[in-house]
Amino acid sequence: MQIDSSKIIITGAARGLGLAMARHLAATGAKLGLIDIEQAALHEALSTLPGSGHHAHVANVADEDQVDHAFDALADALSGIDAAVNNAGITRDGLLVKVKDGKVVDRLSMDQWQQVLDVNLTGVFLCGRAAASHMIKQGSGGVIINISSISKAGNFGQSNYSAAKAGVAAMAVTWARELARYGIRTASVSPGFTRTELVAGMPEKAIARITSQIPAGRLGEPDEIAATIRFILENDYISGRDFAVDGALRL
Ligand SMILES: NC(=O)c1ccc[n+]([C@@H]2O[C@H](COP(=O)([O-])OP(=O)(O)OC[C@H]3O[C@@H](n4cnc5c(N)ncnc54)[C@H](O)[C@@H]3O)[C@@H](O)[C@H]2O)c1
């Protein structure tokens, strides 16, 4: 796919990796459709993009009607959708069971479980389904990329997040098989620990401990994830694979 003048939707684009991807792709000539739940931050993000012809739509990716409406509105505004990056995600970490003096004192709550599954798994399903529907209607193929995580292998304190991230990588494989006949390629990207607000919100001690375990000796930079998205978009023989960008860290 040629990125110049292509129309690309990115969810969770108000900050962090989503905004880095939007800036990177806009600088390459793409027209962006940004989706986020945070209205003020989304419009601020839109105003910082290089180039012109970009649009934004406030939506909760976990809400079926809001997702379908956002994709319809952005496809109208951009005159089509060539690619979608399903990036919006949250964490609600906690141990499966917390034990003190041999007694279970806490459990990962249904609320923590459901919130993460709703946004990180159902949200990707809904956005992938909306993107594929528009691409098939247009008849000119497209690319769908799901943002997974190094945690898809299973990570301490992340039953909910790990399960969702394994799920979105698996959906990328499923969609590659189902959608190839319509000229639609799919992939997932699994970042390691990357310097965004999501990571900055972790205790400093935890960040230092993680960094000491990364063979590359540092956190990833958002633009390194954005460059991977661009590489996948531009290479027409990539489909159904996961791309780890993690400085050689293995959980
Ligand atoms: N930062 C990392 O180290 C890292 C590592 C691996 C994977 N990831 C994944 O990359 C993606 C982006 O992470 P980030 O670090 O930029 O996070 P972030 O918290 O900085 O940004 C996430 C964005 O998603 C938006 N969002 C949250 N819930 C939403 C919803 N229901 N509907 C619409 N938008 C919503 C937020 O408002 C925010 O703008 C996530 O899927 C995350 O799991 C991040």
Question: How are the elements arranged and paired?
Answer:
Elements: E1 7-11, H1 16-27, E2 31-36, H2 39-47, E3 55-58, H3 64-78, E4 83-86, E5 97-100, E6 103-107, H4 110-138, E7 142-147, H5 159-179, E8 184-191, H6 197-200, H7 204-213, H8 222-234, E9 241-245
Parallel strand pairs: 1-2, 1-4, 2-3, 4-7, 7-8, 8-9
Antiparallel strand pairs: 5-6
Helix pairs in contact: 1-8, 3-4, 4-5
The protein binds nicotinamide-adenine-dinucleotide.
Key descriptive features of the protein:
single chain; alpha/beta; Rossmann fold; seven-stranded parallel sheet; two-stranded antiparallel ribbon; binds nicotinamide-adenine-dinucleotide
What does this structure look like?
This protein is of the alpha/beta class and 251 residues long. It has one domain (7-245): Rossmann fold. It contains 8 helices and 9 strands. The strands form 2 sheets. Strands 3-2-1-4-7-8-9 form a 7-stranded parallel β-sheet, with helices on both faces. A two-stranded antiparallel ribbon has the order 5-6. The longest helix is centred in the middle third of the chain and has 29 residues, at 110-138. The protein is globular and about 60 Å long. The relative contact order is 0.15. The structure holds nicotinamide-adenine-dinucleotide (NAD). Residues 11-12, 14-18, 36-38, 60-62, 87-90, 119, 123, 147, 149, 191, 193-194, 196-199 line the site of nicotinamide-adenine-dinucleotide.
